[in-house]
Design goal:
The protein is 43% helix and 19% strand. The chain is built from 5 helices and 7 strands; from the N terminus they run βαβββαββαβαα. It has helices at 21-32, 68-79, 112-121, 142-146, 152-198; strands at 2-6, 38-39, 44-51, 54-61, 86-92, 100-103, 128-132. The chain has a 7-stranded mixed sheet, sandwiched between helices. A hairpin with a 4-residue loop joins β2 (38-39) and β3 (44-51). The longest helix has 47 residues, at 152-198. It is globular and about 50 Å long.
Length: 201
């Protein structure tokens, strides 16, 4: 079994916040695969499913972003999942809005949710799928920015991004990080070629 964890804050108040893009990506994936999130006895909601005979669990912590690691540690202990079979989906202010990047491991990049997970697992050796939320905020306004909502246009563009990220998540479930990286590279190459074609190159 492989686990995919979205980072975000629980509750309707935060539902469409930029900080909740990890939750929204998992909601999209769950809807595509006709599964629903339910409460667990731990600090997360979860949804179990299967893709081509490969089982997976999605999880959305209820600990709020800054304490995401508590839920993630409980999740991987409960399912006995090694860290390399954990994929974290997280927002990133260092990427343009609606862009996405895949990393096999690394630092928290200033994200408190990732910092909490790294601290609780005592390792940064887990894959993460970062989704860009941009950084159109003034100095000192980071908290307000990440807790602000996507507008309707932004939510529509996110759906396009989530179609790509769903393919990456599916590849991770089927074959782990290497399969995930292959699918990611294929998608990125397609997007580059589409841009070239649209520019008449």
């Amino acid at each position: 079994m492989r686990a995919i964890v979205g980072i975000g804050n629980p509750g309707k108040k935060y539902q469409f916040n930029r900080h909740n893009v990890g939750f929204l990506a998992l909601d999209h994936f769950a809807e595509k695969h006709h599964i629903k999130f339910i409460p667990s006895k731990y600090d997360y909601y979860f949804a179990e499913g299967e893709v081509e005979g490969n089982s997976f669990v999605l999880a959305k912590p209820t600990t709020y972003v800054n304490n995401s690691g508590i839920a993630v540690k409980d999740l991987i202990n409960h399912y006995n999942i090694p860290v390399y079979d954990l994929l974290v989906v997280v927002d990133d202010i260092n990427l343009d809005e609606f862009d996405f990047r895949l990393k096999k491991s690394g630092s928290d990049g200033g994200h408190n949710g990732l910092a909490s997970i790294i601290y609780m697992l005592n390792t940064d050796e887990f894959p993460r799928l970062r989704i860009g939320i941009g950084n159109a905020f003034e100095k000192g306004s980071l908290a307000d920015y990440v807790l602000s909502d996507f507008d309707e246009s932004g939510l529509n563009k996110l759906k396009e991004t989530f179609e790509f990220t769903s393919g990456i998540i599916r590849a991770f479930i089927n074959g782990g990080y290497d399969s995930c990286l292959s699918e990611y590279s294929k998608i990125k190459n397609q997007l580059k070629n589409n841009i070239k074609d649209s520019n008449g190159s």
